[in-house]
Amino acid sequence: MTRELAVDDRKYLILVVDDDERIVRMIRLNLEHDGFSVIEANTGMEAINQVREKLPNLVILDVMMPGIDGYEALSLIRETSQVPVIMLTAKSEEEDRIKGLELGADDYITKPFSPRELTSRIRAVLRRTEGLLGVDSGEVILVDDHLRLDFGKREVWLDGELVKLRPTEYRLLYHLVQNAGWVMTYDQILAKVWGYEYRDETHYVRLYVNYLRKKLEKDPSNPKYILTERGVGYRFVDYRR
Question: Do 154 and 191 reside in the same domain of the chain?
Fold first, then answer.
């Protein structure tokens, strides 16, 4: 029986970064079994060089490494690349997870993990970072005199300045704007932006809403674009009135 995939795994080159060669070998064997192509790195600096030279489609990056750790490596990668990154961490504390997300990670997974869980996370990240918004409209949305959105060109302008958004921030804004005036629940946002696999990760929504507010709102503590509906979710202001 042919295995149906959400993404065509054969197209993707995955960089696996961990100083534990046993973990690297385990991940490689399982990903290659699932049809991915895999390259390896054992240090943070080696990972940075591989990203620049091999241009992988996704990076699996361990946090705890000697020398340049995963957080520092991620920060350096983000200076030149928006390649999707999944952090591997032995810690499950929320502050450790948030630190990676704040530095630009797309997801995290806590050791120990199952091969199926890792593959599922990889496919989910690839789906949402491959530009699968289905946006082919050239419509320009003028929210007000300050904020202009061009989803056809994937551009956001605030007071005449181009705002740089991460892929996940862009997806979140897109879905909020598409439902302007309506409340989107946490579950709805997670399903649209991250995928159904993330239905319990409500802190992702809060974190990325905060990111957007810092970039778009003059006063993030008193937002006028992305409004909180306490205990329910978020609503983008109805600009069409």
Answer: yes
Share of the chain above pLDDT 70, in %: 89
* Same domain, yes or no: 111 and 14: yes
pLDDT digits (tens, 9 = 90+) for 100-116: 888 888 898 988 888 88
Instruction: Give the separation between CA 196 and CA 182, rounded to whole angstroms.
Output: 21
**Residue 186 lies inside a defined structural domain of this protein:** yes
Q: What is the pLDDT of residues 127-154, one digit of tens each?
A: 876 654 444 445 688 999 999 998 878 8
Q: Which domain holds residue 110?
A: 9-129
